[in-house]
Amino acid sequence: MPKRRYERREPSHDWQQIQPLLKDPAQIQYEILRPVVLWGQTPKERGAETGVSPRTIYYRANLFDQAGMASLLPAAPPPAIPRQDKRTLPPDMRQEIVDLHAQYPAFRPHELATICFLKFNRKPAPATIKLILASGPKPSTTERRFPRYADIEDGAERRRAIIRLHADGWNAKSIAGYLEVSRQTVHTTLKRWAKEQFAGIEEKSHARTGVRKVDLTAVQEVKKLAQNPLIGAYRVSAALEQMGIKLSRATCGSAKRCPSKPAIATSIAVWT
Predict the structure, then answer these.
(1) Which are the contacts of 221, defined by CB distance < 8 A and separation ≥ 6?
(2) Which one of 115, 159, 176, 271 has the lowest number of neighbouring Cβ atoms within 10 Å?
(3) Kind plus residue range of the DSSP H or E element containing 192
């Protein structure tokens, strides 16, 4: 006769006798709820017998009514998220590195890392960038982002191209090489942008505005003093300064040497 698998015991409804025999958590939960859902025992009464909160028994009985035996089983754990290697870059960053290198092959790895940091807030190592360039995806485009500097007719658009590349993380050397323009032009544009902002992008007039150093009173006084051959250019300049007229010694000397046609003839012509 085969050996019994389970030990024979007398049936009982006493929780104190049943509890030591229970091993599985789902079985324990069911035995707590069984008198409530089968025979209508109140949660308060069952709680007094088992030591479980009546509110907990009431809540689990409602779940049992809705989901049956499935409510006794523990919740399924969420699916495991595959651990990402820190050295693995996202596909969009890998594509960006390849596209940037296609735009300007002279890029060095640390420059590409700086651009990636500004755009993705992550700075890959130069060795990682070299690996991506060697085995990464193909460039998504072969068209230039901006034409060459000389091919851009509008001066404001030329400066905008420099500023946009600089904002993306390009350094002055790479901008100059990509647009085929001197580094001095790039530095001048960036300094102008830093000082004047958007006003520095637009074209400005380069017409010379002469500074008028003398007026009619100064012209007349120079004529008077120039008639005395004993007064030198220094004394003429000092005498004019006492009258509130500031003229350089060289200007006064020119007037002394050629009183009929002094160096300020242009001003005389304007005022006379």
Answers:
(1) 239, 240, 243, 245
(2) 271
(3) helix 183-196
| CB neighbour list of residue 251: distance below 8 Å, 6 or more residues apart | 213, 237, 263, 264
Task: Determine if the pTM surpasses 0.70.
Answer: no
Using CA atoms, how far apart are residues 48 and 55, in angstroms rounded to an integer?
12
Residues in the chain: 272
Per residue in 21-55, pLDDT tens? 888 888 888 889 988 988 888 999 989 988 899 99
Query: Coil, strand, or helix at residue 123?
Result: coil
Tell me how many degrees the CA angle 41-46-52 measures, rounded to the nearest 5: 150
204, two tokens: 């400005």
- The residue that leads in pLDDT, 220 or 176, is 176
Greatest mean pLDDT among 125-129, 150-154, 223-227, 238-242: 125-129
CB atoms inside a 10 Å sphere around CB 33: 23
Sign for the pseudo-dihedral over CA of 97, 98, 102, 105: positive
- In the predicted model, what is the mean pLDDT of residues 209-236? 67
Q: What is the pLDDT of residue 206?
A: 55
Q: Are 192 and 158 in contact (CB under 8 A)?
A: no
Contact 263, 255 (CB under 8 A): yes
Q: What is the mean pLDDT of residues 172-179?
A: 92
Q: Which residue has the higher pLDDT, 126 or 4?
A: 126
Contact 148, 180 (CB under 8 A): yes
Task: Kindly state the tokens that stand for 105.
Answer: 């092959």
User: Going by C-beta distance under 8 Å and a sequence separation of 6 or more, which residues neighbour residue 86?
Assistant: none
Distance, CA of 262 to CA of 222 (rounded, Å): 9
